[in-house]
Design brief:
Blueprint (H helix, E strand, L loop, with lengths): L10 E6 L2 E7 L5 E13 L11 E4 L5 H5 L5 E4 L2 E8 L5 E5 L3 E6 L5 H12 L4 E16 L2 E17 L9 E3 L2 H12 L2 H19 L1
Parallel strand pairs: 2-11, 4-10, 5-10
Antiparallel strand pairs: 1-9, 2-3, 3-8, 5-6, 7-8, 9-10
Length: 210
């Protein structure tokens, strides 16, 4: 199926498991009481479960054009339009692609639904995320007797905290602010530069002792 064959786009949803709950700090270093939901709604090149006669992969870069076009995307609970957790246009939902997949950060509202989702995340009762999309371009092939679909380009319309995963490659849990900050530091660390600095310091120490 391609753009020419897929004249009438249908809504599709897929579920993954990679979600965390973290607290943030203000500029003055005071920890906010409001949690942040972070994780991956999609993991690239990860095989799905059987979706009804076929399995599926999401290709790296599949969401790039949708994100570049600033397509409006809602963060929901179980794809329910009445249970809104955030919205891209409001700045309460942030999305971007990295080498791993479609990264999500949600500032959940202080509402019944928002607070319920946060509590269920803290308890470990919710472990999954999902994304809703329109297929723009895909490829099909048969591997070992199974039909495999690769999504090459998709238009996003929602990301959701959900209960049942179609993809088993992700997880959801609660993280403290310290763990969240530590993970950010690891993501932003240039380990090659760190290694060069350590090597230089070692050389200087050896030269001083000689």
């Amino acid at each position: 199926m391609n753009k020419e064959e897929n004249k009438t786009m249908e809504k599709e949803t897929r579920i993954c498991d990679d979600l965390h709950l973290a607290h943030t700090r203000s500029e003055d270093g005071v920890e906010s009481e409001a949690p942040k939901i972070v994780g991956y709604a999609s993991v690239f090149d990860s095989m799905s479960e059987n979706l009804g006669g076929f399995r599926e992969l999401i290709q790296r870069g599949a969401f790039a054009e949708s994100l570049a076009n600033n397509d409006e995307v809602h963060a929901l609970f179980n794809h329910d339009d009445n249970k809104i957790l955030g919205r891209r246009g409001a700045g309460t939902l942030n999305l971007w692609e990295d080498d791993h997949g479609l990264r999500v950060e949600i500032d959940p509202p202080n509402t019944t639904d928002g607070n319920d989702v946060v509590e269920l995340l803290r308890r470990g009762d919710l472990v999954s995320m999902s994304f809703g999309f329109y297929n723009i371009k895909d490829d099909w092939e048969t591997r070992d007797g199974e039909d495999i679909r690769t999504i090459k380009e998709a238009k996003l319309f929602d990301v959701s905290v959900v209960t049942n995963p179609a993809y088993q490659s992700t997880e959801v849990n609660v993280r403290s602010h310290e763990e969240y900050v530590a993970s950010k530091e690891v993501e932003n660390t240039d380990f090659d530069a760190v290694g060069e600095t350590i090597d230089l310091r070692l050389r200087l120490r050896l030269a001083e002792e000689a």
